């Protein structure tokens, strides 16, 4: 398994959030973190960020992505 560099993870989170059409406030609320934390992570300003925080943000984005995917499938039925 390839380990991702911190900058790469930050960029992936930012692009995923933008692709889903979410703002930082929505992601922060879903991940149960501060809006400023999401901003700092996306802007690579937190070098010693807690792994759990990054994971929570990623999981929040994955949850929204699954919801959106489910809605698209339901629309097709």
Q: Given the C-alpha coordinates, what overall shape results? A: globular
Write the element-wise H/E pattern from the N-terminal end onward. HHHH
Query: Helical element count?
Result: 4
Structural class: mainly alpha
Report, as a whole number of angstroms, the end-to-end distance: 38 Å
Q: What percent of residues adopt helix (DSSP H or I)?
A: over 70%
Radius of gyration: 13 Å
- For the report, how would you describe the main beta sheet? none
According to DSSP, the number of beta strands is: 0
Output mean pLDDT.
Answer: 86
List low-confidence stretches.
none
| Strand residue content | under 5%
3D structure, described in words:
With 77 residues, the protein is mainly α. 73% of the residues lie in helices and 0% in strands. The chain has 4 helices and no strands. The model has no long low-confidence stretch (mean pLDDT 86).
Strand-helix topology:
Elements: H1 6-19, H2 24-31, H3 35-42, H4 51-76
Helix pairs in contact: 2-3, 2-4
Question: What structural keywords apply?
Answer:
single chain; 73% helix
Quick gist of this model?
With 77 residues, the chain is an all-alpha fold. It has helices spanning 6-19, 24-31, 35-42, 51-76.
């Amino acid at each position: 398994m390839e380990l991702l560099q911190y900058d790469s993870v930050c960029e992936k989170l930012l692009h995923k959030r933008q692709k889903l059409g979410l703002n930082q406030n929505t992601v922060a609320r879903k991940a149960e973190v501060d809006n400023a934390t999401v901003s700092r992570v996306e802007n690579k300003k937190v070098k010693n960020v807690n792994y759990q925080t990054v994971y929570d943000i990623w999981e929040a984005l994955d949850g929204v992505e699954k919801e959106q995917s489910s809605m698209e499938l339901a629309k097709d039925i």
